[in-house]
Amino acid sequence: MIIGCTLGNILSLSAVEFNLIDANNDDYIAIRKKYIILGCAAFMGGYTRMTYSLSVIMMETTQDLSLFIPIMLAMLIGNQTGYLFTRSLYERATRGKQLPIITDKIPLTCRELRAGDIMADNPVYLNAIDTVKNIQKVLNGNNHHAFPLLDAKGELLGIVPRNFIIILITQEAWYNPGSIGSSGAKDNEINKSEGSSHSRSSNRKVSKS
User: Fold this and answer.
1) Which end of the chain, N or C, is less packed with Cβ atoms under 10 Å?
2) pTM
3) Residue segments in the chain with a per-residue pLDDT below the cut of 50
4) pLDDT score, position 198
């Protein structure tokens, strides 16, 4: 923002040097402020690639409705000029944090490219219900960061990261098919025992009365 204001001020001084603006004019200070604001809007538009939100911010800052259209033009010019040279601030931040991002435009070298052209012929995968032995074999056999997860029919369910698998093994979060039935049977036994004890206590109370 400071750089944009500085560039706008330099442009106003250059206009004075080339006799485009009269420095002795009473409105010179107001004109100079407008140059500074437009320089700030153009620089911020090229740096952040923001459009309408940046225009609203600049309008709230200046409180001058007559600058709305010049701010929009300066910002759009800075926005399009920035796309010719580099990425925006937020795109650089997401790439710096290694976040997955899909761009608006496909590079020319990738427009005719398909997933089958770059993937392995025999991809390494894991089953939705798998053994620890097979998981250990897969983890030790390569350095992949994630693995496809297939169901019993061989259809893709999703992708599971390597660190998730390691956490599950470390915490011994095993899949036990009989755990659901056994826990249900235990609950039934507890309910039956509680019901029988309750009925006995009620019978005793009735006999005493």
Assistant:
1) C
2) 0.45
3) 180-209
4) 44
